[in-house]
Task: inverse folding
């Protein structure tokens, strides 16, 4: 008898990005990963660019490659990513230590889940992230000077 | 109600002739009250006898008919067609599992992970080896794990989990919920054994609370909650802050503990 072949139906990265009708926590999960990768990329670039000082190369000063407006926008994106990642991270620490998920209950339809229990915390940290971002925008637009 | 025609866009895959899955559309005559499972039966009886899926009880108990219906992992027997759409419905196999054929996923990987978490009471003087009495458990102690016992192993949570989509080593929501179910049981003494599985690579700390498992669970088991409570226990145990209660005592026979007076077991119906 011939060996039975099977199709691997693992969603892969598509499983992060979509493929279903997901809830807001799923999108927070995706954004947390993407902002984490973005901040890591920034950190690597930042390390390389600043280390060029030893060769007297200053890419971020007047006339330097990174002194263009697009990189200023990029810097703001890093602030936005940091704001989301940091505040959502606080929520995740609290949730993963079991502080905002509630106690086990008898499941009676319509089911109430821990997702609903921690939802106010999600809203609160997103409001805090937004406030942080507004302060960042105030600085970014040059209003602080 | 007049009969409606709803298009079922069903994933088809025959490993003997198809290189990869494809979508086949069937027009299904739908009446009020028909479930997606009824629709699949209608297709098999009237349009295409080669369509394959897995089902058994038809009443949301056995957990066999977990499928990806309109992009959400759920039970086909528990989903009314007209609650979803009056025109089009997509039906596919549960993601994150290999497809055996059409809508049939291979759940073996899930059951292997389930077996690996020691989903049973671990206690030296367990009833199985010394059947002289019962363990006393208060209603409050029962409530600590009762919710997690309702799991029917349908695999919907595993299909919804984004971490499992990229990490094949991750145990997944169902096995970790089973693990927490026994960890939270006051009769159990197996925390140390299970903690090795739960805190290893692919254990509880791979979960980052996307919440999908809890949202899609057709029985309200809330695997997300179970995994977070498990992580809490693991962290507290690591920091030596866990509440180390002794497992509940064993009743020494009728009349001991809170048993009703004059309570005896019925006579055996099968001779020894």
Result:
């Amino acid at each position: 008898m011939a060996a039975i072949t099977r199709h691997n139906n693992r969603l892969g990265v598509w499983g992060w990005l979509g493929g279903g009708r997901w809830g807001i926590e799923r999108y927070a999960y995706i954004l947390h990963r993407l902002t984490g990768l973005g901040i890591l990329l920034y950190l690597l670039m930042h390390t390389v660019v600043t280390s060029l000082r030893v060769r007297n190369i200053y890419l971020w000063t007047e006339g330097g490659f990174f002194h263009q407006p697009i990189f200023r926008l990029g810097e703001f994106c890093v602030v936005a990513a940091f704001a989301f990642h940091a505040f959502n991270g606080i929520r995740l620490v609290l949730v993963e230590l079991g502080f905002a998920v509630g106690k086990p209950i008898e499941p009676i339809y319509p089911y109430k889940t821990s997702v609903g229990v921690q939802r106010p915390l999600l809203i609160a940290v997103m409001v805090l992230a937004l406030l942080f971002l507004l302060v960042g925008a105030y600085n970014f637009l040059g209003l602080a000077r | 109600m007049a009969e409606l025609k709803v298009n079922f866009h069903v994933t088809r895959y025959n490993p003997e002739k198809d290189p990869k899955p494809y979508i086949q559309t069937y027009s299904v005559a739908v009446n009020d009250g028909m479930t997606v499972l009824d629709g699949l039966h209608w297709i098999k009886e009237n349009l295409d006898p080669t369509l394959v899926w897995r089902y058994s009880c038809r009443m949301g108990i056995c957990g066999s008919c977990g499928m990806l219906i309109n992009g959400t992992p759920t039970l086909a027997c528990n989903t009314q067609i007209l609650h979803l759409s009056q025109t089009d419905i997509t039906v596919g196999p549960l993601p994150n599992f290999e497809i055996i054929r059409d809508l049939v996923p291979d759940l073996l990987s899930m059951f292997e992970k389930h077996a690996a978490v020691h989903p049973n009471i671990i206690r030296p003087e367990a009833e199985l080896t010394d059947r002289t009495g019962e363990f006393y458990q208060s209603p409050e102690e029962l409530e600590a794990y009762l919710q997690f016992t309702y799991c029917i192993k349908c695999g919907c949570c595993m299909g919804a989990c984004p971490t499992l989509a990229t990490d094949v080593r991750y145990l997944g929501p169902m096995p970790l919920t089973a693990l927490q179910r026994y960890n939270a049981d006051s009769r159990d003494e197996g925390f140390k054994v299970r903690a090795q599985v739960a805190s290893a690579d692919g254990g509880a700390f791979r979960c980052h609370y996307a919440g999908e498992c809890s949202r899609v669970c057709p029985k309200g088991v809330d695997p997300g909650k179970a995994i977070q409570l498990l992580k809490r226990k693991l962290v507290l145990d690591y920091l030596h802050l866990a509440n180390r209660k002794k497992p509940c005592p064993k009743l020494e026979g009728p009349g001991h503990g809170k048993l009703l007076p004059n309570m005896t077991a019925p006579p055996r119906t099968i001779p020894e």
